[in-house]
C-alpha cells in the first residue's frame, strides 16, 4: 500500500505536464488519442529487462556490465521498431496529420529507450538496497516513471515539431 500511495501522488505530476501543454494538446487532438498506446507499449517493453534483472539478482547471477552489453542493442532495435510501427499505425488512421504521427513515433522511440534503461537500473538499485525487494517495487515504480517520462517527451517533442496558434 505505501508504494501505491507514493506512486499515485508521483503519477499526478503527469497532469501538471499535460496542463502546461494544454493549448498544444487542444490544437493537436491526435496526440491525446495515442498517449495510452505510447505509455503502455513503452512500459511493457521496459518490464521484461527489469524482470530479468530481478531474477538474476535473486539467483546471484547478475553481471550488470554483461547485461547492459546484451540489452542495449536490443533496446535500440526494439525502440526503433516500436517508433516506426507507431508512425505507420497513426498515419494510416490520420493521413493528414504526419506531424502528430512523427511526434508520437519519436516519443515512442525515446520513451522506450528511457524505460528499458531505467528498468534495468531501477531493478539493480532496488536489489542493492537491503531494505527493498526489487520484486515489490521495481515494476510499479518503472510504470509510473515511464508514464511521466512518456508524457513529458511527447509534449516536448510535439512542441518542437507541431505549429500552434502562438507560432502563427
Compact summary:
With 168 residues, this protein is mainly α. It has helices spanning 2-11, 13-20, 22-27, 29-33, 35-59, 64-93, 98-128, 134-161.
Describe this structure in words.
- The chain has helices at residues 2-11, 13-20, 22-27, 29-33, 35-59, 64-93, 98-128, 134-161.
- The protein has 8 helices and no strands.
- The model has no long low-confidence stretch (mean pLDDT 84).
- The chain is globular and about 55 Å long.
- It has one domain: Tetracycline Repressor, domain 2 (Orthogonal Bundle), CATH 1.10.357.
- It is mainly alpha-helical and 168 residues long.
Under the CATH scheme, the architecture is Orthogonal Bundle
Overall tally of domains: 1
The mean pLDDT is: 84
Question: What CATH first level would be assigned?
Answer: Mainly Alpha
* Distinct helical segment count: 8
**What overall form do the CA principal axes indicate?**
globular
Largest sheet: none
Proportion of beta-strand residues: under 5%
Question: What low-confidence regions span 5 or more consecutive residues with pLDDT below 50?
Answer: none
Under CATH, the homologous superfamily reads: SLC41 divalent cation transporters, integral membrane domain
Which secondary-structure class do the elements indicate? mainly alpha
> What is the straight-line distance between the termini?
48 Å
In percent, how helical is the residue content?
Answer: over 70%
Rounded radius of gyration (Å)? 17 Å
Number of strands: 0
Amino acid at each position: 500500500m505505501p508504494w501505491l500511495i507514493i506512486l499515485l501522488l508521483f503519477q499526478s505530476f503527469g497532469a501538471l505536464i499535460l496542463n502546461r501543454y494544454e493549448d498544444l494538446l487542444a490544437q493537436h487532438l491526435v496526440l491525446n488519442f495515442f498517449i495510452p498506446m505510447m505509455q503502455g507499449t513503452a512500459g511493457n517493453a521496459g518490464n521484461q529487462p527489469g524482470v530479468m534483472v530481478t531474477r538474476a539478482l535473486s539467483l546471484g547471477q547478475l553481471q550488470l556490465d554483461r547485461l547492459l552489453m546484451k540489452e542495449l542493442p536490443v533496446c535500440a532495435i526494439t525502440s526503433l521498431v516500436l517508433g516506426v510501427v507507431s508512425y505507420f499505425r497513426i498515419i494510416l488512421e490520420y493521413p493528414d496529420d504526419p506531424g502528430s504521427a512523427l511526434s508520437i513515433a519519436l516519443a515512442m522511440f525515446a520513451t522506450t529507450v528511457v524505460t528499458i534503461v531505467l528498468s534495468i537500473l531501477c531493478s539493480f538499485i532496488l536489489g542493492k538496497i537491503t531494505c527493498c525487494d526489487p520484486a515489490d517495487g521495481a515494476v510499479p515504480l518503472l510504470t509510473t516513471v515511464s508514464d511521466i517520462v512518456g508524457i513529458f517527451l511527447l509534449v516536448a517533442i510535439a512542441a518542437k515539431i507541431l505549429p500552434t496558434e502562438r507560432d502563427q
